[in-house]
Design a protein that fits this description.
This protein is α/β, with parallel strands linked by helices. 46% of the residues lie in helices and 15% in strands. Strand 12 and strand 13 form a beta hairpin. It starts with 14 loop residues before the first helix and ends in a 13-residue tail after the last helix.
């Protein structure tokens, strides 16, 4: 039965009755907290109990946002006049914001008489403001205010309002305990997720082969695939555009397998015609064909106990495809010109940059061979899809060719970095390696400048100036020199002019022509 706490019921002979009612409400609240797991639903049910049993109005729980500088609506009791769920109170704003700031309960005997009252959440008519009181208590966690519990109630005596406020403070303490537990669980979950990500990254670092450079998410997936398949003898198909590093992946699989002490034999299927390819793979007997003046051991036999890497397998002729299918299925082959079958204890790793599915549709590639080689596939991403790896690779190649050419390469200039990252790299990693070798060769001061890169990467500001012209080359050199000087002098044009031995007016003129903003290099200003 609902019992209304009015002026008389808050004191006098009915005090014990009021206490019994409060105990009954607390029992209901405790049952709700045990039975419900969702925070919003649980808080809403608590407010509904308070409104039903104590005849409170506009029950609202607000919680501190993640930045801890404002209160947002956590939940409200379901009612016909549902309030504004998007309302926000910052510290010190209105009664609610003041409670958040001070951590102390606020009791407003008559809403109409309180100028600080803002009423952003629930609408109240002027008549109601004359008849309603307002109580807001803090939800305290340790030394901080985690939220507020507020409600309206019909105008009552000061003693009655204080008694209700004390009871709501108890309820707020129960809510605070729940908020604390949920916060701890969230922090533990986030900590576990962070640790899981760290361990996954560490594990992926462990998977990373020493011969492959890359830290992008797509390359980490490749490293994981290599780690998964390397210990087994499973046939592997490596797919990717030309220059993506398929041979490096094949090497990584072989040297991380149980066959690492045995040979890794490579065959470029695209470089040989049908007759030569068959002889290259299987070997031939003396006199098997014109020019076969002696017996020759094939690559399959050379790879005995190890791994045979078939690069560009999509270029196999139909006749060779049939024989290769037999090798993979039955581990048996014959030399050209011989009828004696030989066993083959080899692992097959194939690679292609072709669309084998389309080749199957046109009859250029056998479907049964496709299924035999495509047991475990590794797809290498093109360099344009792993932009974050470009500078890792560029620095690696700069160090490599610096040592080969006896040059100390200290860094790559900003202009060169921009050019490297803006380029689409149709030739992938192989093209990048060639470009860096070219740049190292032309670098003279330990810095790879933009003008050291090949013509394919040059991006003239003025399209009327042809790439490769003297004017274009001078412009690139001026850009690099000015950019480096601005970096050293934090964008100070006068200091750049003194360093370069020219006037400040000339520096500004050149910067304007080249479209360089010196303020970008003022790191103190940009903080």
């Amino acid at each position: 039965m609902n019992v209304k706490i009015d002026n008389n019921e808050c004191g006098g002979n009915n005090t014990s009755c009021g206490r019994r009612l409060q105990l009954a409400v607390l029992l209901e609240i405790s049952n709700i907290m045990v039975s419900l797991t969702g925070q919003e639903e649980m808080l809403r049910r608590i407010l509904e109990i308070l409104e039903a049993k104590l005849e409170l109005l506009h029950g609202t729980i607000m919680l501190v946002d993640r930045n801890k500088d404002a209160l947002i609506v956590g939940t409200m009791a379901e009612a016909v006049d549902a309030g504004n769920k998007n309302a926000v109170y910052r510290k010190g704003e209105g009664i609610v914001g003041q409670v958040m700031l001070s951590g102390r309960t606020e009791i407003i005997p008559k809403i109409a008489d309180e100028p600080r009252f803002q009423g952003r959440i629930h609408s109240r008519s002027e008549h109601n403001r004359e008849l309603l009181s307002f109580i807001c208590v803090p939800i305290i966690l340790g030394s901080e205010t985690a939220g507020t519990l507020s409600c309206d109630l019909s105008f009552r005596s000061k003693d009655c309002l204080e008694e209700v406020a004390q009871f709501l403070t108890i309820v707020a303490g129960i809510i605070a305990h729940d908020v604390h537990n949920r916060r701890q669980l969230r922090l533990e979950r986030e900590s576990l997720e962070s640790e899981n990500r760290r361990l996954c990254n560490a594990l992926q670092d462990k998977f990373r082969p020493e011969n492959i450079i890359g830290d992008s998410s797509s390359m980490r997936e490749v490293f994981t695939r290599i780690y998964q398949v390397a210990p087994a003898d499973t046939t592997v198909l490596i797919r990717g555009e030309s220059g993506t590093g398929k041979e490096l992946v094949a090497s990584a699989i072989h040297y991380n397998s149980s066959r690492a002490s045995k040979p890794l034999v490579r065959v470029n299927c695209a470089a040989l015609n049908e007759n030569l390819l068959e002889s290259e793979l299987f070997g031939h007997e003396k006199g098997a064909f014109t020019g076969a003046v002696a017996r020759r051991i094939g690559r399959l036999e050379e790879a005995e106990g190890g791994t045979l890497f078939l690069d560009e397998i999509g270029d196999f002729s139909p006749a060779v495809q049939v024989k290769l299918l037999r090798v993979i299925q039955e581990k048996i082959y014959e030399r050209v010109g011989s009828s004696q079958s030989r066993s083959a204890n080899v692992r097959i790793i194939a690679a292609t940059n072709r669309d084998l599915e389309a080749a199957i549709d046109t009859g250029a590639f056998r479907q049964d061979l496709y299924y035999r080689i495509n047991v475990f596939s590794i797809i290498l991403p093109p360099l344009r899809d792993r932009k974050s790896d470009i500078m890792l690779l560029a620095n690696h190649f700069a160090e490599k060719y610096g040592k080969l050419m006896n040059k100390r390469i200290e860094r790559i200039s900003t202009t060169a970095i921009t050019m490297l990252t803006a380029y689409s790299w149709p030739g992938n990693v192989r093209e990048l390696e060639n470009c860096i070798e070219h740049a190292v060769l032309l670098s003279g001061d330990g810095v790879i400048q933009g003008y050291c890169l090949p013509q394919t990467l040059q991006m003239p500001q003025n399209k009327d100036i042809p790439a490769g012209s003297l004017k274009h080359q001078i412009g690139l050199m001026e850009r690099d020199v000015l950019t480096d000087a601005l970096k050293r002098n934090s964008g100070n044009v006068s200091a750049v002019a003194r360093e370069l031995g020219i006037t400040g007016r000339m520096v500004r003129y050149k910067l304007a022509n080249l479209g360089i903003n010196p303020h970008k290099f003022n790191y103190r200003r940009n903080r």
